[in-house]
Amino acid sequence: MSRKERRAAFGAALKQARQEKGISQRQLAELVGVSHGAVGHWETGRQISEENVAALEDALELPRGQLGWILGYGDPPATLTAEDGIAGDPTLDERTKRGLLDVLAAIRRGERGAERGPASEG
Questions:
Q1: I need a labelling partner for 8 at 20 to 30 A (CA). Which of 69, 71, 89, 103 fits?
Q2: CA pair distance 47, 104, nearest whole angstrom
Q3: pLDDT at position 101
Q4: Phi, psi torsion values for 26, nearest 5 degrees
């Protein structure tokens, strides 16, 4: 995976983690001690230091390495979620990732027919 692909995957995983926590870029920036513009840049695949990755993981209450492994900062954590795997998969385009994440969320909510996924839509 190229450096650019890693940063894009990291950005997607960061955005997902932030949204799941229910906080804005500005709120996350305040927790980390950076500008909200920095968070926006990281979510769109800009370069980030290992120290800032660790600060983001702490602020989002994620296990150490949950985000950093995507950029090559250590090994993947043993508690990697299906969502993290999908978000970090460089072989999937954004539309496919979103579709898979939507299907997974529907399955977890127990919606009927979710197991057939987006391909079954007419």
A1: 103
A2: 29
A3: 93
A4: -60, -45
Residue 79 in tokens: 């508690």
Give the model's pLDDT for residue 83: 86
- Of the pLDDT bands very low, low, confident and very high (cuts 50, 70, 90), residue 114 is low
Tokens of residue 15, six digits? 């955005």
Q: Which of these CATH numbers, 3.10.580.10, 3.40.228.10, 1.10.260.40, 3.30.70.1250, describes 3-116?
A: 1.10.260.40
Residue extents of the structural domains in the chain: 3-116
Q: Is the dihedral of CA 22, 48, 102, 83 positive or negative?
A: negative
pTM of structure: 0.64
The pair of three-digit structure tokens given for residue 118, joined into one six-digit string: 């987006």
Q: Given CA atoms 59, 53, 5, 108 in this order, what sign does their dihedral have? A: negative
Smallest CA-to-CA distance from 42 within 13, 75, 64, 85 is with 13
The whole-number pLDDT of residue 79 equals 63
